[in-house]
Amino acid sequence: MITADRLRSIAFWAHDLNEKEREYARRGIIEKAFAKGAYICHRGDYLESWIGVTSGLIKLGSFSRSGKAVSLVGVPSGGWFGEGSVLKNEARQYDVIALRDTRIALMNRPAFLWLFENSVVFNRFLVRQFNERLGQFIALVEYDRMLNAPARVARSIAWLFNPTLCPDRPRQLEISQEEIGLLSGLSRQAANASLKLLESKGLLRLERGKLTVIDVSRLLRFEE
């Protein structure tokens, strides 16, 4: 289990819980570390835990029957995901891969279900979380079918700064062009060209190994 101070530092949703709810939450959470490229879980695995990224960056994705890699979404530090699989007690419908050395928090299913059944505050958070994820994956259908490379990169970056899923996130992000390519389903070269175009439009600023987002809303709407 983790301490109460650690819970507050890694889980923005815990700030509004009462003392009893926070105690249940912290007692149900452990942390684990994964190296770059490691699979946290595979599609079809039963992972009976709700997952939070406490440091690093992960990707949700899968492979088609023809072997094509499909990138769904990236989750940066501060993000939590997988509540649907925990509630339904079903196998994961995606692979979870660490794009860099990453540390995650795992809340066991009994603790999650206790909060779900007893905490109004936690349920309100889950409703917002589900609603935001639904909008994100509806947008992903458009993203896959209609958008070109710069727009795909723009959306992938903007989703990392989602104010509901990752509130109070600094606008500067340490991320490589290779990682952006993996999140967008593009080669490093295509991601690099797209980033330079987005920078020329005044939407972000590039530095070695990191970027600063200037306008998240314009990134979400970008369709060059």
Radius of gyration computed on alpha carbons: 17 Å
Overall form:
globular
Proper CATH architecture of the largest domain = Sandwich
What is the percentage of strand-forming residues? Answer: 15-25%
Number of E-state strands: 11
The tally of structural domains comes to 2
Furnish the topology, listing elements before pairings.
Layout: H1 4-10, H2 19-27, E1 29-34, E2 39-41, E3 49-55, E4 57-63, E5 69-76, E6 80-81, H3 83-88, E7 95-98, E8 102-108, H4 109-118, H5 120-146, H6 149-159, E9 172-174, H7 177-184, H8 188-200, E10 204-207, E11 210-213, H9 216-221
Antiparallel strand pairs: 1-8, 2-7, 3-6, 3-8, 4-5, 4-7, 9-11, 10-11
Helix pairs in contact: 2-4, 6-7, 6-8, 7-8
Any overview of this molecule?
The protein has two domains: 4-119, Jelly Rolls; 147-221, Orthogonal Bundle (Arc Repressor Mutant, subunit A), CATH 1.10.10.10. The protein has nine helices and eleven strands. It has helices spanning 4-10, 19-27, 83-88, 109-118, 120-146, 149-159, 177-184, 188-200, 216-221, and strands at 29-34, 39-41, 49-55, 57-63, 69-76, 80-81, 95-98, 102-108, 172-174, 204-207, 210-213. The strands form three sheets. A four-stranded antiparallel β-sheet has the order 1-8-3-6. α2 (19-27) packs antiparallel against α4, α6 crosses α8 and α7 packs across α8. The protein starts with a helix and ends with a helix. The mean pLDDT is 87.
What keywords describe this structure?
alpha+beta; 4-stranded antiparallel beta sheet; 224 residues; Arc Repressor Mutant, subunit A
